[in-house]
Write a structure and sequence with these properties.
It contains 14 helices and no strands. With about 325 residues, it is an all-alpha fold. α5 (about 95-130) runs antiparallel to α10 (about 235-265) and α12 (about 280-290) runs antiparallel to α13 (about 290-320). The protein is globular. The protein starts with a helix and ends with a helix.
């Protein structure tokens, strides 16, 4: 019964977000036909009326159709598994998303995993050794790194490591001279091109995880069972890993899953400055070109990612904390 309620809530959440997104997209100033028509006027020298008619024909989209009718067609297409065709890339939206998703997953999974794991270990160490120099250093780093947007960090990394030192590439997912496939030159090139964008995410996210873990660990250290464990003569390592680490980590599991889902929506700026062909890059292109169908597909995918991330967080939390499982 609980899972049925959760499933209904998930469907309603996705449907509501999809509807709001559809309305907001069409309330944006400008539309794909007008955008393309103005581009024709500037580049081809045709008059606006002729350009507008040609744009409607090329995009196969009529902005004069009532919004409710457009919405009905959109929902009807989704129910048939048809997300429509991208107006600017002239490809099915599903194909664009399928091609972009692996690149975004590569960046987000590695960067989030590294920043989370390193952050929780730093946070536990700082909580256990609160009177050492590491404590203020971590706090200052987290304050500075957390206040700088990841795309600004990305630009600084490009200037330092790509432009000045020329150690790493700064554009694209791999070198054009390698042949895509399961071979070492291609894999090495992919990893090399991913270093800078991954580093931008890690630098800005590491401090937040460390501070969150530090706060949770300090709270756990004040519990009576920690005092009892010390009185029993348990080793410091066992207390930290078994008692402090696990209990302090529980509240962060939900944040981890949600952060993974939300990073999809925050990736356009980083992927755009690195010309990295992930979800964020194509979403940025779709917004700039007023590609309604691609925007709808991308935002729907981000919504599903966030909802599924929350569901996974609940499942993981119930596995790690038996009390939640017993209550369910």
């Amino acid at each position: 019964m609980v899972w049925i309620r959760r499933l209904i809530l998930i469907i309603l959440t996705i449907f509501f977000a999809m509807t709001v997104t559809f309305i907001v997209i069409r309330m944006m100033p400008g539309d794909p036909v007008e955008t393309l028509a103005m581009e024709m006027v500037r580049n081809q020298g045709v008059n606006y009326e002729e350009a507008y008619a040609r744009a409607k024909s090329m995009l196969n989209y009529d902005p004069d159709i009532p919004m409710i009718q457009q919405y009905g067609r959109y929902v009807s297409g989704l129910l048939r598994g048809n997300f429509g065709e991208s107006m600017s890339f002239k490809r099915p939206v599903v194909e664009v998303i399928a091609g972009a998703l692996p690149w975004t997953l590569l960046l987000l999974s590695i960067s989030l995993f590294v920043s989370f794991v390193v952050g929780i270990f730093i946070g536990m160490y700082v909580a256990w050794r609160r009177n050492t120099i590491v404590d203020p250093v971590v706090s200052i780093y987290a304050s500075i790194a957390g206040s700088i947007p990841d795309y600004i960090v990305g630009l600084l990394l490009i200037i330092i490591f790509a432009v000045n030192l020329k150690w790493l590439p700064n554009r694209g997912p791999y070198d054009s001279s390698v042949m895509p496939g399961f071979n070492w030159p291609y894999i090495a090139s992919v990893l090399e091109h991913a270093i800078l964008p991954i580093s931008a995410y890690i630098i800005t996210g590491l401090g937040g995880w460390a501070l969150a873990m530090k706060g949770n660990a300090i709270s756990v250290l004040g519990e009576d069972y920690i005092t009892a464990a010390k009185a029993r003569g348990l080793s410091q390592r066992r207390i930290i890993t078994t008692y402090v680490g696990r209990n302090a980590l529980l509240p962060l599991i939900t944040n981890l899953a949600i952060s993974f889902g939300m990073m999809f929506g925050g990736s356009p700026l980083v992927e755009n400055i690195f010309a990295y062909p992930g979800v964020g890059y194509f979403l940025n292109q779709a917004v700039g070109r007023r590609d309604f169908t691609l925007m709808q597909g991308m935002f729907l995918m981000i919504t599903v990612a966030v909802v599924l991330a929350n569901l996974i967080a609940e499942i993981l939390y119930s596995i790690l904390d038996p009390r939640i499982r017993q209550e369910g």
